[in-house]
Amino acid sequence: MTFELTWYGHSTWGVTVDDTELLIDPFFDTPFTDTDPAGLDPDHVLITHGHADHIGDADRFEGTHFVATPEITGYLADNYGIEQSTGMNLGGTVELGDAFVTMVRADHSNGIDTGYGASGGMPAGFVVSDTKPTQEHDADSISFYHAGDTSLHSEMKDVIGPFLEPDAAAVPVGDHFTMGPAQAAVAVDWLDVDTAFPMHYDTFPPIEIDTDEFVREVKATGSDADVVVLDGDQSYTLAE
Description:
7-stranded mixed sheet; about 20% helix; globular; 5 helices; 14 strands; Metallo-beta-lactamase, Chain A; alpha/beta
């Protein structure tokens, strides 16, 4: 089983589950990445919400299948030329090749392209796993939680952690528009993950932080999670 994560900066992640390649929130205008999105060929692109720093490079993947809320998929079809898409909503799970993708709650705003008009529906996070989530614990399953842009919310403790059982989580830590290091650390503790990755920081001035603060805050919660601060374009392999 191959389960590899690649962070391209901000909230943009590549997730490879066996032979299936996913890309989450394509936005490559960051100081972290040297990747030319034209060189990527994902099977599916997942969109957590419609802000410009999450869909800014969606048009670079015109021929790819997209997954997002129906409001976002409709907008992408009308404005970005995206012809292949699946609209879904919170709580749903779709099978994408070797991966199962569950859309979960995020607490944030969702004006499309950071505009003040059209709404993208509910913002979301995604749990990507190699098996379909059930109430039966599967010790061999591997799963990754991309929290999207969010504040701390109790479903992390009550639903996402105990039911979807992510092994690793990428949480926003930049503060101002999302959780900062302290609340993100509480999220990591509630989720009871083995590995935590900070994201959505240092892209522009309001969200510049010291990631060492996040490391200290996670330790202060008593969590045993290993905090991994990736460089842009760096990959990490999840193991069973």
